[in-house]
Write a structure and sequence with these properties.
The complex is a heterodimer of chains A (62) and B (797). By secondary structure, chain A is mostly helical. Chain A contains three helices and no strands. By secondary structure, chain B is an alpha+beta fold. Chain B folds into six domains: 44 residues, no CATH class; 102 residues, Alpha-Beta Plaits (2-Layer Sandwich), CATH 3.30.70.100; 236 residues, no CATH class; 82 residues, Calcium-transporting ATPase, cytoplasmic transduction domain A (Distorted Sandwich); 149 residues, 3-Layer(aba) Sandwich (Rossmann fold); 108 residues, Calcium-transporting ATPase, cytoplasmic domain N (3-Layer(aba) Sandwich), CATH 3.40.1110.10. In chain B, 45% of the residues lie in helices and 19% in strands. Chain B has 28 helices and 30 strands. In chain B, a hairpin with a 4-residue loop joins strand 7 and strand 8. In chain B, helix 12 packs parallel to helix 17. In chain B, 43% of the residues are buried. Classes of the chains: A mainly alpha (62), B alpha+beta (797). Chains A and B meet through helix 1, helix 2 and helix 3 of A and helix 4, strand 7, helix 8 and helix 9 of B.
């Protein structure tokens, strides 16, 4: 039965990992806009290389 | 054949055409060509006719003020040598194509490094290279493609106010995490009949539960404690007080049980209710991001103005303008300060400031007031009072307005007080009972009562129901500031309407001719003369004749009398067009000297053009229904009483109507009604209603385009929604009915819980079952009822 203790600690830690992921996502502003990204991902992007580089570049700053 | 503009969808003919595509104006065609050149026609594929009508107007000088460094500093958030960040509010954003175009601005102008839109806030964040494109050019580009940014005197202050409440999301996340884990760890407790089965594991479970409950108590639930404490310090028992007490009692009893090894406690219920209540609050507070309910005059006036100094045009921030400076006001620009007119040609539209419908011609040397919009050609004015002290802004400094609205405390609070009193007496009597029967059960019984009968169900009902009602009202184009507006609406017994822009439509005027039938020659002569004038009334008459397909003739001589009319000679006859007084002064016999544009040919009275306001559809029926429902209706208009007869037809003869009301009159009128004990709702639109909207109990701002300036108000209603006003008010009131219905349900749950609690038999399992069942049924019933009621209104969108 004592293996349960280990398993529960692991499960709480895994859940805690998701909690931290959620808190981080809120903090980094991923919850600020819940509509535009869903539209943006549908655009066909001809200038893919160009756009993706500028995109990552600005998210780092913000 | 009737076509639709390929760019903006306006009805148009086939005169402007590119590659089988039709356009309503050159502006739209130019935008299309620009996008076409840059290979950006995907814009038209994503949604049909996505563009904004360009109307062929594009004043590039308008943004000259953006060259001023002082103004740039106010707008730019972050700047390096080759990179600058700026955020604009673009109210025109409305579809997928908008997002696509705005995020691909870099294809049109390589100076734009990156742009990112926020659809719901209607914002765009642009990173650009200031060495390649100036801020002015950037704004010009945006305006050209149809997304003119709103840049106002208040600068970017609105950005700061719009921060998302992240703290609340943190609390919900933590509470959800702890709640689900505690629930899982409590499961063995529910199922095991004897404590011994689990041995040491059981201690591990309950101590881990205790550990997990600490963040809930100290972090997630902190808001309830703070609110309860501030309430108690003001000697007032608000709804958070019994909740805070219940949380503390539950936690205390759980800690006691865990430490004395007598049980597992009720930590699962405690963290559960905290989680549900936080979600409820968040749901209720989720407001409309793109609306601003607190606009004052600073968001009406431009950020910069053009100043004339030594014959040169200089751009200055409006706030730096001082008395005595000369301003240049171009067509369609706002007069930014009270000033004296230095040149001729002023034709000021005060409809927004005073409610007068027609623009006024102002003679050189007269005063023009801040807030008017110049409709004629460019004029020069000398500032008499800076913007902060002008006639229209003084209203905001009025002590009457600075007093907060006397918001009545929500009806929920007294209920929660009764609830608390009843709760305490039940706890007391069950304690008394057990003191007589079995004193060991006193503490378990008393604490169980407080745990089970938590008023959280009341709070849940209220937050979720108001959240739902606000969302449904939004679907009917009424956007409320917050849930306390709904409670205020409930008490309203008097509704005061403004006329111009509220009952009438700003953009629509209808011309009606009365008098002798015009011969073709007469009509041609009048048409030829009105064509020569820029006065909006003349232009109305011109377009009236345009529809009849007349050909204009040469006008031999023309003389304008400012504010009165025109005297002209055409085809050998003298034509006098203007006010009744002008005709009378020239010896013409006018039969019925009222308002309108009077016409005399060869000193003979011919007829009159009357400008009729176009009332919004269904206003009359709406007012009648409101009257039947027992509301008192009043009308306050800034306009002249010429429309009175029409208004009597619409509002009924028993409606008090006041005309030529200035902003202060309106404010005082509202105050007078309030001092008689009436609860007043004001429905208005302009700056002249701003004071009244703020003073009354519920202020509703009516607007045809929600992004345009609306004065500070409690709710924003879209123009065509006004015909449903009575139903919307009914629906807002339904919120209370729904709350009462659900509250009855939660009392049943409470009674069941009480049954166990007072017998000192509340097992953690009963509490753990009761809590989620009651919460979930309350939430779903609230959603269901608000949906059913909103459908039963029968409003078609």
């Amino acid at each position: 039965m004592s293996v349960l203790i280990l398993l529960i600690i692991v499960s709480v830690l895994v859940a805690g990992g998701f909690l931290i992921a959620f808190l981080w996502s809120v903090k980094s502003g991923q919850m600020d806009d819940d509509y535009t990204p869903s539209v943006r991902m549908l655009f066909d992007d001809e200038l893919k290389s160009n756009r993706s580089s500028t995109h990552s570049d600005s998210t780092n700053k913000s | 054949m009737q076509q639709h503009c390929y760019h903006c969808g306006t009805d148009c003919d086939e005169s402007i055409k590119v590659e089988e595509k039709f356009f309503c104006c050159d502006g739209c065609k130019m935008v299309f060509q620009l996008l076409d050149e840059n290979g950006m026609c995907q814009y038209y594929d994503l949604s049909e006719m996505p563009g904004m009508s360009a109307k062929g107007v594009f004043a590039s000088e308008k943004y000259n003020y953006l060259d001023s460094i002082a103004i740039q500093d106010q707008l730019i958030q972050f700047k390096l040598d080759d990179q600058a960040h700026v955020v604009f509010y673009l109210p025109q954003i409305h579809c997928v194509s908008c997002v696509w175009l705005l995020e691909n601005l870099h294809k049109i102008n390589p100076g734009v490094i990156h742009s990112q839109t926020h659809f719901e806030k209607k914002e765009i964040k642009i990173v650009y290279n200031p060495t390649k494109i100036s801020l002015k050019e950037l704004v010009q580009l945006l305006a050209f493609v149809g997304y003119e940014p709103m840049i106002h005197l208040g600068g970017n202050d609105w950005l700061k106010k719009k921060k998302v409440n992240k703290q609340q999301l943190f609390k919900i996340g933590v509470a959800g995490f702890c709640f689900s884990n505690i629930m899982m760890l409590s499961f063995p407790d529910y199922l095991s009949t004897s404590v011994g089965d689990l041995g040491n594991l059981r201690h591990f479970f309950v101590y881990l539960n205790l550990l997990l409950s600490l963040p809930v108590l100290f972090f997630s639930a902190s808001g309830f404690f703070v609110s309860a404490y501030t309430g108690l310090r003001q000697k007032w028992l608000n709804i958070d007080a019994p909740i805070a007490l219940a949380i503390l009692v539950t936690f205390g009893r759980s800690v006691y049980e865990i430490l004395t090894h007598t049980g597992g406690g009720y930590l699962d219920s405690m963290s559960g209710i905290v989680f549900f209540m936080l979600v409820g609050r968040w749901f209720q507070d989720k407001s409309y991001d793109s609306f601003s309910f607190d606009r004052d005059y600073t968001s009406f006036f431009p950020l910069g103005v053009t100043v004339l100094q030594d014959e040169k045009e200089i751009n200055k921030p409006l706030s730096a303008i001082e008395k005595g400076e000369t301003l240049l006001i171009r067509t369609d620009e706002i007069v930014a300060a009270d000033a004296v007119l230095l040149t001729d040609g002023a034709l000021i539209d005060y409809s927004f400031v005073t409610g007068e419908n027609a623009p006024i011609e102002v003679a050189k040397g007269a005063t023009v007031f801040a807030g008017g919009i110049q409709k004629g050609r460019a004029i020069q004015v000398q500032v008499v009072k800076p913007v902060g002290q002008s006639y229209i802004t003084e209203l905001w400094n009025s002590p009457l307005l600075n007093a907060d609205k006397n918001i009545d405390k929500s009806f929920v609070h007294p209920w929660s007080q009764y609830f608390t009193y009843i709760l305490f007496s039940i706890a007391f009597f069950s304690g008394l009972y057990w003191w007589v029967v079995n004193s060991n059960n006193i503490l378990p019984a008393v604490t169980s009562v407080l745990i089970v009968a938590c008023p959280c169900s009341l709070l849940l009902t209220v937050t979720f129901t108001y959240g739902n009602v606000l969302r449904h009202l939004g679907k009917f184009k009424m956007y409320c500031k917050n849930s306390s507006v709904l409670e205020a609406i409930e008490k309203i017994d008097t509704i005061v309407f403004d006329k111009t822009g509220t009952l009438t439509n700003h953009e629509d005027t209808h011309l009606e001719y009365e008098g002798a039938k015009l011969t073709t020659n007469q009509a041609t002569a009048i048409y030829s003369v009105t064509r020569e004038s820029l006065h909006p009334l003349s232009q109305l008459i011109t377009s009236y004749f345009n529809k009849q397909g007349l050909v204009h003739h040469k006008v031999d001589s023309i003389e304008n009398y400012i504010g009165k009319g025109t005297f002209a000679v055409c085809d050998g006859s003298t034509i006098l067009i203007g006010s009744a007084s002008l005709l009378i002064a020239n010896g013409v016999d006018v039969p019925n000297a009222t308002a309108g544009v009077f016409i005399a040919i060869d000193k003979q009275y011919i007829g009159v053009f009357k400008i009729n306001h176009v009332y919004r559809q269904g206003v009359s029926e709406m007012v009648n229904r409101l009257k039947l429902k027992g509301f008192q209706i009043h009308l306050l208009s800034g306009d002249h009483p010429t429309e009175k007869n029409n208004l009597v037809g619409i509002l009924g003869s028993d409606t008090p109507m006041l005309f030529e009301q200035n902003p202060n009159d309106k404010l005082n009128y509202i105050q007078a009604l309030q001092s008689k004990g009436q609860k007043v709702m004001m429905v208005g639109d302009g700056l002249n209603d701003a004071g009244a909207l703020k003073k009354c109990d519920v202020g509703i701002a009516v607007t045809d385009q929600t992004h345009l300036f609306t004065p500070a108000s409690d709710a924003i209603l879209e123009g065509n929604g006004i015909r449903n006003l009575d139903q919307l008010l009914d629906y807002a009131k339904k919120g209370k009915t729904i709350i009462i219905i659900i509250f009855v349900l939660s009392i049943i749950y409470n009674l069941v819980g009480m049954y166990f609690a007072t017998r000192a038999q509340l097992s953690p399992m009963v509490a753990a079952i009761l809590m989620p069942i009651s919460s979930i049924s309350i939430v779903s019933l609230s959603a269901l009822l608000s949906y059913v009621y909103s459908r039963s209104l029968g409003i078609k969108n």
